[in-house]
Automatic annotation (TrEMBL):
Entries under CDD domains matching the protein: BCAT_beta_family
Organism: Camelina sativa
Single GO MF annotation: transaminase activity
UniProt entry keywords in alphabetical sequence: Aminotransferase, Pyridoxal phosphate, Transferase
Cofactor(s) the record lists: pyridoxal 5'-phosphate
Keyword Transferase: yes
Entry keyword Transferase: yes
Signal peptide feature range: none
Protein family per UniProt: Belongs to the class-IV pyridoxal-phosphate-dependent aminotransferase family.
Matches recorded under Pfam families: Aminotran_4 (PF01063)
Designated name of the protein: Methionine aminotransferase BCAT4
Length: 352
């Protein structure tokens, strides 16, 4: 199949239909070619152009572009939701706007203002409105990218930066969403102190595909990465933050620069406090993590997903899953806000 060809999921699209002709029940978390995307460029030393919606198409790239040569690129992920009463909601897009700015500073790139970022997300969602799944059938995952598109061989800064965003309708990211079976990765590290683990650099992901592929072959859902400095403390999954519950205390690894500051992570911490739990951000040794009552992971794609087991050196430790868990309560509460089923008293959703 050609790289941009459409998978079998799509049948046909007619411009006057409310919905694209998608088999919504079969939605997975994967690429689906939608109608439109956003593109804005910025020449070195200038501000970003206003940006515009254009038909979805392959990007033309100079082979010497900074993103191809030196990995100067960031991505973000956020979702648009269709509510039962026909509204379209984005979830905390300003947070992704702030995070892409932090990442751009780290990768020595210019960045759009948060207002421009949020406006671009609204435009992408509206320009692909018919691809936003019916309520309860999935979400429209928006993928903003910011990358060095200008050619650079030796000296920097990069002459041109591109800010673009496209969107795909998606279902759940974790196939085994009732409870993940994780393996502790004790060789490969995801991030190291003063590196780029704390920003959404495109370079953070495929360097751990070797152990991920091995873990999948062994039947695991995902990996639990340890800190690079000691190899003893829990950091995060491939692309999700991690939490543990012990008694009335919810703990998550503190942001030391190696862990992504997830938008769902901060929401979950706030909701746990609302529920009356004590919330701690701290170093979590693996031994302590394995003794928790319940563990779960969070992320835009992961939402809130229970962890059913963690295997470390062939020893498997099981955790509570199911309806009577904190993870289930968090998932329901968050999903109700995101999909407009309850009033958003926190101001997290943006109606477009
Ligand atoms: C997200 O949750 O948005 C991510 O970046 C995870 C990705 C692997 C789908």
């Amino acid at each position: 199949m050609a790289p941009s060809a459409q998978p079998a999921l799509l049948t046909s699209v007619s411009s006057d239909e409310k919905y694209a002709n998608v088999k919504w029940e079969e939605l997975a978390f994967g690429f689906v070619r939608t109608d439109n995307m956003y593109v804005a460029k910025c020449n070195h030393g200038e501000d970003f152009q206003e940006g515009k919606i254009v038909p979805f198409a392959d990007l033309q790239l100079n082979p010497c572009a900074a993103v191809l040569q030196y990995g100067q690129g960031l991505y973000e992920g956020l979702k648009a939701y269709r509510t039962e009463d026909g509204r379209i909601l984005l979830f905390r897009p300003d947070q992704n706007g702030h995070r892409i700015q932090a990442g751009a500073k780290r990768l020595y790139m210019p960045y759009p203002s948060v207002d421009q970022f949020v406006s671009a997300m609204k435009q992408v969602a509206l320009a692909n409105k018919k691809w936003i799944p019916p309520p309860g059938k999935g979400t429209l995952y928006i993928r903003p990218i910011l990358f060095g598109s200008g050619p650079i061989l030796g000296s920097f800064p990069v002459p041109e930066t591109t800010f673009s965003a496209f969107a795909c309708p998606v279902g759940r990211y974790h196939k085994d969403n009732t409870g993940l079976n994780l393996k502790v990765e004790d060789k490969f590290r995801r991030a190291f102190l003063s590196g780029t683990g704390g920003v959404k650099s495109i370079t953070n992901y495929c360097p751990v595909w070797i152990p991920m592929a091995e873990a999948r072959k062994q039947g695991f859902s995902d990996l639990l990465f340890m800190d690079a400095a000691t190899g003893k403390n829990v950091e995060e999954l491939f692309a999700a933050n991690v939490f543990m519950l012990k008694g009335n205390v919810v703990s998550t690894p503190s942001l030391t620069g190696t862990i992504l500051p997830g938008v769902t992570r901060i929401c979950v911490m706030e909701l746990c406090r609302d529920f009356g739990y004590q919330v701690e951000e701290r170093v979590i040794p693996l031994e302590e993590f394995l003794e928790s009552d319940e563990t779960f992971c969070t992320g835009t794609a992961s939402i809130v997903t229970s962890i059913a087991s963690v295997t470390f050196k062939d020893k498997k430790t099981g955790f509570k899953t199911g309806e009577d868990t904190l993870a289930a309560k968090l998932y329901d509460t968050l999903s109700d806000i995101q999909t407009g089923r309850v009033e958003d008293t926190k101001g997290w959703t943006v109606e477009i």
